[in-house]
Each structure stands twice: as C-alpha cells, then as structure tokens.
Amino acid sequence: MQLSETDSSVSINSKAGLLLPSRAMLHLLSPGGLRTRLSILIYHRVLPCQDPLFPEENHARSFDRQIGQLAACFNILPLDDAIQGLRNGKLPPRAACITFDDGYADNAEIALPILQKHGVPATFFVATGFLDGGRMFNDTVIELIRRAPGSTVDLESLGLGKFSIGTVPERRQAIYELLGKLKYLPSESRQSTVEAMSTLIPVDLPRNLMMTSSQVRELHNAGMEIGGHTASHPILTQMEDSAACADIANGKEALENMISAPVRFFAYPNGKPGKDYLPDHVRMVKKLGFDAAVSTAHGAARKGTDLYQLPRFTPWDQRPVRFALLMARNMLKTGETV
C-alpha cells in the first residue's frame, strides 16, 4: 500500500512548492534501508469542525490538509509492513505510519473517508470498555465543564476546588486543572470522583463519543489495522500487575472476537515510559502475544529500536514548512524507553 512518489502526489496540497524542499530535507534524514527512520504519528479525535474550546484539536478540514502533507512528504505504510521493514532493514525512504488512540466515533465517521481519499492506511488502537455508548473519564470532565451553566463551578466538596468558567479560556483552564488532578488517581477513586462531579453538575452528557462495535468492524473491513489499548484505559502503573495484565488481555480478546481476526499490536494507555508503563508491562504485552507496541515517547524508530516500545509523535502545525521542520527534529530523537 506504499504511495506513489510522482509529482502529481504533491499537487494534493495547495502549497506543493513548499513541500518539495521539505521532502528533500526529510529524505536526507531518512534515506531508506538501514539508515531510514520510521515516523509513527499519533492522533485521537478528528472533529467535524473546529472546537472553540480546543481550537488546536484536529477537525475534518485540518486533518485533510495534514494527511495531504504527509502523503506528499512521506511513504505512509501499514504498521505491519513498517515493522517488517524495521526488522529486515528494508524500510523505504521517509517511512511513516498513522495511528489513532482510544476509539472515538469520529475516527470512523470523519477520519476514515479522508484516509481513503488519500489512499492512506492507519492503525486504530481501541479501548474496548467504552464502545457502544461509553465515555472516557476525561471526556466526561470536558463535557461537564463545557456544558456547565453559570460562571463558576464549585467542586470544593470533592477536594477539587472552585473554578471560574465565565469565559472560554477559563473553561479550558478549569478542564486542564481537573484532568491534571484526576489522571493519576487509582481507577476506582477517579471514577467515583467523576461520578460525583456529574451529580454536582447535572447536565446532559453525550453518549455517542466512542465507536460502536460495528464501526470497529467497519474500519477492519476497510483494510485498517485494529490494535489493543486495554479494556478500561487505565494508567498501568497505578494497578496491581495481575489487574493490569487482565485489562490488556481482556481488551485484546474483545477486539479479536469483534473483528474475527488477530489483534497484533498494542498501545500503552497514556504511554509515557517510566510513568505510565514499566518493564513488567512490556513483558506482559509480549507474553500476551502482541507482535509490537507503541508508546507516546517522542522520536523516530530505526533498526534496533525495541519493537515493544516504538515512539510516536504528531507535530500540531498546519504550515507545510514548519510541519516538516518539526517532523525532521523528531527524526533526530531515538525515543525514551524503560
């Protein structure tokens, strides 16, 4: 599924003239074979239009533009082909992969048609416990604060403080602060706190943020790779080893039953080496039969990179030359591991 490198492929972007020197620069850093570097990009959501609360979040138009830039500058490969290339030292120049984490419905509704338009493969790492009407804790917090009436939210009874939300920047800051306080709590404590927040802020919350099982199958049937991302998206370091292993295994089994195919690749939830996963979790992933795994450490993989700790990165800049410079800088990093 390797893309053509003809000049016509560059014309998909209105700033093609700027992309040609960008592609040449990237070629110097990743010329192919044993010297090439594999850039794995990570996405989460692709919204239908720009979100005033999070304007930097990808939406259909910006994602279409960025995928066009990637297709013009890189050889975008399926993850399994890229991993084979890492093993045997036969990656093409400027090799790249595209991945998505968590399992948002807009991945199937918006991202998939754009990927198909550009002839680009991707891997979708899905946390199975939120499919079919579920919602991740961070999205509950975001939507509670987004929809909360008035200009203040008082969560002092939960030990979380009181927040001004009279303006969009204040709402955004409240969300960032709350997520920072909640993310590394034990899963049960975090869930009970978020449920208590929902009682204090009685607003209607969306139940269609995550994919349905049929949408996961749609991605698989479209030729996209489906990867494991646990069942409940926990911070693995905050769990007992037996519970962490079971959560990884349960997610894998649920997906394999869903798509009637092996699930070969895994993404560590949150993915920071040493903080979100440890060597024991890497061993679990190997023992459970995954072929490779990805983290969120910045950097580019090369021959000899630990296939169970492949780095990932996304430069959130839509300007073609700046985009290429950020990608080039990331190529110089090897990626932290445990």
Task: Supply database-style keywords.
338 residues; alpha/beta; TIM Barrel; 2 domains; five-stranded parallel beta sheet; two-stranded antiparallel ribbon; 12 helices; 43% helix; 11% strand; disordered N terminus; Polysacch_Deacetylase; Glyco_hydro/deAcase_b/a-brl; NODB_dom; Polysaccharide deacetylase; signal
How would you sum up this structure, described in words?
With 338 residues, the chain is an alpha/beta fold. It has two domains: 7-132 and 208-331, Glycoside hydrolase/deacetylase (TIM Barrel, Alpha-Beta Barrel), CATH 3.20.20.370; 137-200, no CATH class. 43% of the residues lie in helices and 11% in strands. It contains twelve helices and nine strands. The strands form three sheets. Strands 1, 2, 3, 4 and 7 form a five-stranded parallel beta sheet that branches. β5 and β6 form a beta hairpin. α2 runs parallel beside α12 and α6 (137-147) packs antiparallel against α7. The chain starts with 6 loop residues before the first helix and ends in a 7-residue tail after the last helix. The model is unreliable at 1-18 (pLDDT under 50).
CATH class of the largest domain: Alpha Beta
Rg, Å, rounded: 20 Å
Instruction: Spell the H/E element sequence.
Output: HHEHEHEHEHEEHHHEHEHEH
Query: How helix-rich are the residues, as a percent range?
Result: 40-55%
- The chain-level structural class is alpha/beta
CATH superfamily of the largest domain: Glycoside hydrolase/deacetylase
Shape: globular
**CATH second-level architecture of the largest domain:** Alpha-Beta Barrel
CATH topology of the largest domain: TIM Barrel
Protein name: Polysaccharide deacetylase
Subcellular location: Secreted
Keywords: Signal
Pfam family, one: Polysacc_deac_1
